């Protein structure tokens, strides 16, 4: 074949391919209802739908959509064609929903070329029990004498018969305490530690399960085990038992729909029976004792003889606090095999799983009846090679398994969890076989959304540690630590880490559930407790309302809104947010919040603890910190009020913010423009929250940079200063200083724990000291996510993948990379509600390359580090040749371009 013929064929094929791409039909995919895929048991009366557009084309926008909802093959609502670009959180507006009903929905869209997509594949949601009258079940308790906070876990069961063909069956379950359910000996669902932890008196979630496949024709059996959990088990260092109540109780309702149109309901009532089983004790802090000799085999099977079981007791308990669970449950995730078998100098047998995680260990073992295996959990080994338990304080964190002696037996606990990397094993006399032990990670099943990597392996390990710190501590509530006698929902930790959290995993529903409890537990005067769900414990019994911690009432909703564009969350939390500002206002005098207890910049580095720096103390004036966070919350209130159209509140908080800042300058700034507190945190908060007129800021910036230099490029910030430190440096033109802090390898720094072998974030900068001894065991956690807030700078500033405030939830994407620090490449990607967004830069041979992915139905403003547009190419062509790219200006060292959806490859000569 002649060369020109080959060329013609190739050109024709290219044109044909180009033509197909140009006119490729947009596809609709990734359908979510209330941020969940095919959710069961929603009690939201106007659920919201989200979907993604998929297209190989650039600059694809939705211009209209049409939704339709059906139930039992009948259409119950059609939106008609709606001229709107919304594809996230679009509310149902059809006829009132019915309880215990499955609905199917589909969507199609029109793009900006006027072309319609095909209808999406159907998705579904199922409603829960929408009215109190829909509950036919009664609360029941075992009535067993040993059924107490530190006692047994009772086993409950009931049999029933089905004589017709089952079309569908849904189990609605909750408990005072925790539950695990079976039908005909098979586990119901894959959730653990249900119904989780909430402010039970007013907010007790129930779960819904499709159990159609578990039912058999004829006789069936339901079996449920109850655990004390957070409801009545000992909580906190005070070991308070029965905090919410003394009875572990069950509420169970099985709604069966038959193919002939009839229904049947099987409920918890006095027909159920109860007995003790193999769980002798199971408690969150101390662990579980399981005696296999006491376990009744087949106890949840229909053929089991329960003649020796006793009747349960009906409990009179509230029903009006029930609501459907809409946050993702705790599930099993990664598994780990031991990477090392250790015999310590004292002769102890220890297994190292290589990762500090939260969960438990599954054990397979053979032995004689009565043999006892004790597994003790710990995060670290001490410098002498022994497992270190002191930082667990009063938590035993041990699981004890007593063998039945019938061949290979498999054990795992039920109603506890542990924070650990290492386990000490006692009771096995032979050498430990690593294959017999599996560590299982447990955390709320929040979808993984964010990815980050760069050219520095230590920073990559830091990102690993940030993610694992989040996973281990996001166990239904954002706990502070998962290993000791605490594990509480501290508000300060959550507030400071919340923006980082939104990148790594999809935490919209997770935070919404926790914020509901925050509003419930808020005091009548607006004060927000330090712990949510609230626990009245010493020394905080009569102390509430502290800056940074209680500001979770405003910070967490707003950060969640910015990440996901969830306006309904702001509307739901608005009264709580406003009440918190009211509390501060009442606590202040002359527009200064300088009264009451404050944590201040918690666990900041104190210079006097390390003579090598020979510098002033890093402790920051606590009321200066409070004034800055008050200003931040006031600004959030302005933004929230504007979002919801509350113009009077916008005016009120705008005036309040001016007065807060004026009072700050008067109280904390000398006439010559110097802060009264010369610490990194004081400088950072002053600058980040714009507490000063612009003319006074350059001096404070220089003081901050000078302070860092005096500390030999080390940070000295604590919980409240750390999240904003590198952001401030980059904002004011000192990104290289930010990189010096990020890449610092000696204490205090982010990479110091990495160099010391950390696989999660530590509570203190030196939880383990350079000589491998430990900080005060009274407060030294090796899995404590707050300092992982540096991740937010890594994602949104270092790589530069961000969302503009006018297009929250990545509807309008901002990409503004900050190369530096000797890093040669950095990449980040994020699964947004619209689809994957990504940015990555690379430096090589005097050129910068920037790869960008913008999902359909969004747009992006991209800041390209370059002297001018003339030195930039995209896809190997000058910017001027690209019709899909608009150059809009120049800002400092960046050329600004606007683009629509698509993938882009920019290169620029440095």
From TrEMBL:
Catalysis performed (reactions): Hydrolysis of terminal non-reducing alpha-L-rhamnose residues in alpha-L-rhamnosides
Domain Alpha-L-rhamnosidase six-hairpin glycosidase: start-end pairs: 449-797
Gene3D superfamilies for this protein: 1.50.10.10, Galactose-binding domain-like, Immunoglobulins, Maltose phosphorylase, domain 3
InterPro entries registered for this protein in UniProt: 6-hairpin_glycosidase_sf, 6hp_glycosidase-like_sf, Alpha_rhamnosid, Bac_rhamnosid6H, Bac_rhamnosid_C, Bac_rhamnosid_N, FN3_sf, Ig-like_fold
GO BP terms, alphabetized: carbohydrate metabolic process
Signal peptide boundaries: 1-24
One term of GO molecular function: alpha-L-rhamnosidase activity
Domain Alpha-L-rhamnosidase concanavalin-like as annotated: residue spans: 343-442
Keyword Lipid biosynthesis (UniProt): no
Every Alpha-L-rhamnosidase C-terminal domain range: 805-875
EC nos: 3.2.1.40
Keywords: Hydrolase, Signal
UniProt entry tagged with the keyword Signal: yes
Domain named Bacterial alpha-L-rhamnosidase N-terminal: residues: 164-334
EC class of the enzyme, as a word: hydrolase
PANTHER family: ALPHA-RHAMNOSIDASE (EUROFUNG) (PTHR33307), ALPHA-RHAMNOSIDASE (EUROFUNG)-RELATED (PTHR33307:SF6)
Identification of the protein by name: alpha-L-rhamnosidase
Organism field: Chitinophaga agrisoli
């Amino acid at each position: 074949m002649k060369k020109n013929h080959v060329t013609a064929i190739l050109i024709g094929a290219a044109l044909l391919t180009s033509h197909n791409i140009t006119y490729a039909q947009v596809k609709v995919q990734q359908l979510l209802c209330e941020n969940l895929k095919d959710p069961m048991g929603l009690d939201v009366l106007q659920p919201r739908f989200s979907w993604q557009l998929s297209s190989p084309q650039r600059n694809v926008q939705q211009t209209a959509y049409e939704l339709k909802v059906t139930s039992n093959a009948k259409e119950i609502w059609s939106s008609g064609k709606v001229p709107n670009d919304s594809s996230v959180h679009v509310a149902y507006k059809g006829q009132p929903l019915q309880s215990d009903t499955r609905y199917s929905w589909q969507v199609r869209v029109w793009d900006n070329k006027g072309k319609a997509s095909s209808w999406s594949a159907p998705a579904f949601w199922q409603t829960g029990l929408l009215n109190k009258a829909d509950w036919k079940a009664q609360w029941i308790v075992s009535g067993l004498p040993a059924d107490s906070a530190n006692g047994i876990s009772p086993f409950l069961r009931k049999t029933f018969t089905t004589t017709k063909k089952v079309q569908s069956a849904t189990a609605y379950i909750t408990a005072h305490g925790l539950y695990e359910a079976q039908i005909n000996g098979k586990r119901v669902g894959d959730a653990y530690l249900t119904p989780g932890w909430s402010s039970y008196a007013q907010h007790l979630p129930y779960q819904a399960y499709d159990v159609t496949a578990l039912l058999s024709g004829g006789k069936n059996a339901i079996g449920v085990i109850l655990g004390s959990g957070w409801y009545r088990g000992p909580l906190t260092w005070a070991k308070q038992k029965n905090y919410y109540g003394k009875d572990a109780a069950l509420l169970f309702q099985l709604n069966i729909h038959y193919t002939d149109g009839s229904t049947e309901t099987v409920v918890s009532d006095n027909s159920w029976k109860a007995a003790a089983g193999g769980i002798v004790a199971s408690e969150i802090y101390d662990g579980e004792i399981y005696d296999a000799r006491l376990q009744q085999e087949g106890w949840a099977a229909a053929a089991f003889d329960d003649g020796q079981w006793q009747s349960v007791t009906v409990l009179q308990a509230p029903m009006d606090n029930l609501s459907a669970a809409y946050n993702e449950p705790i599930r099993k995730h990664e598994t780990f095999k031991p990477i090392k078998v250790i015999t310590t100098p004292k002769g102890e047998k220890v297994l190292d799983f290589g990762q500090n995680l939260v969960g438990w260990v599954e054990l397979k073992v053979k032995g004689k009846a009565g043999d006892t295996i004790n597994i003790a959990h710990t995060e670290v080994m001490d410098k002498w090679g022994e497992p270190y338990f002191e930082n667990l304080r009063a938590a035993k964190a041990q699981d004890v398994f007593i063998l039945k002696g019938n061949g290979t037996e498999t054990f795992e606990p039920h109603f506890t969890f542990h924070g650990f990397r290492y386990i000490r094993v006692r009771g096995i006399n032979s050498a430990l076989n690593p294959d017999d032990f599996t560590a299982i990670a447990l955390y709320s099943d929040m979808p993984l959304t964010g990815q980050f990597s760069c050219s520095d392996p230590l920073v990559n390990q830091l990102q690993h540690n940030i993610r694992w710190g989040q996973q281990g501590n996001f166990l239904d509530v954002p706990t502070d630590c998962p290993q000791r006698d605490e594990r509480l929902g501290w508000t300060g930790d959550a507030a400071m880490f919340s923006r980082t959290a939104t990148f790594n995993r999809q935490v919209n529903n997770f935070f919404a559930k926790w914020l509901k409890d925050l509003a419930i537990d808020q005091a009548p005067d607006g004060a927000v407790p330090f712990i949510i769900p609230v626990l009245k414990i010493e020394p905080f019994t009569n102390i509430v309302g502290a800056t940074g911690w209680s500001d979770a009432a405003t910070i967490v909703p707003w950060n969640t809104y910015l990440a996901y564009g969830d306006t309904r969350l702001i509307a739901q939390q608005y009264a709580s947010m406003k009440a918190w500002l009211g509390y501060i206002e009442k606590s202040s005098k002359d527009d200064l919040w300088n009264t009451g207890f404050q944590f201040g910049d918690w666990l900041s580095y104190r210079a006097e603890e390390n003579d090598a720096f020979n510098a002033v103390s890093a402790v920051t004036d606590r009321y200066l910190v409070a004034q800055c966070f008050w200003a931040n919350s006031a600004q959030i209130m302005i933004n929230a009020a504007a979002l919801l159209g509350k113009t009077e509140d916008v005016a009120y908080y705008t005036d309040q913010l001016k007065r807060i800042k004026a009072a700050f300058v008067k109280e904390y700034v000398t006439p010559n423009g110097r802060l009264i507190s010369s610490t990194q945190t004081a400088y950072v908060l002053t600058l980040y929250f714009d507490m000063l007129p612009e003319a006074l800021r350059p001096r404070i910036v220089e003081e901050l940079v000078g302070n860092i230099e005096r500390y030999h490029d080390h940070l000295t910030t604590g919980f409240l200063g750390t999240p904003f430190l590198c952001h401030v440096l980059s904002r004011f033109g000192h990104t290289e200083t930010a990189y010096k802090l990020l890449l610092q390898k000696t204490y205090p720094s982010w990479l110091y724990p990495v160099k010391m072998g950390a696989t999660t974030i530590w509570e203190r900068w030196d939880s383990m000291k350079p000589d491998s001894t430990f900080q005060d065991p009274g407060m030294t956690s090796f899995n404590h996510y707050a300092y992982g807030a540096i991740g937010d700078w890594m994602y949104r500033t270092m790589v530069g993948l961000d969302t503009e405030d006018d297009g929250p939830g990545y509807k309008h994407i901002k990409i503004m990379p900050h190369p530096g620090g000797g890093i040669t490449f950095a990449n980040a990607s994020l699964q947004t509600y619209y689809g994957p967004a990504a940015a990555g830069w690379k430096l090589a041979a005097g050129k910068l390359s920037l790869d960008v992915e913008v999902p359909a139905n969004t747009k992006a403003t991209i800041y390209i580090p370059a002297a001018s547009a003339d030195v930039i190419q995209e896809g190997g062509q000058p910017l001027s040749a690209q019709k899909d790219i608009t150059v809009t200006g120049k800002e400092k060292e960046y050329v600004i371009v606007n683009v629509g959806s698509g993938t882009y490859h920019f290169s620029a000569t440095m």
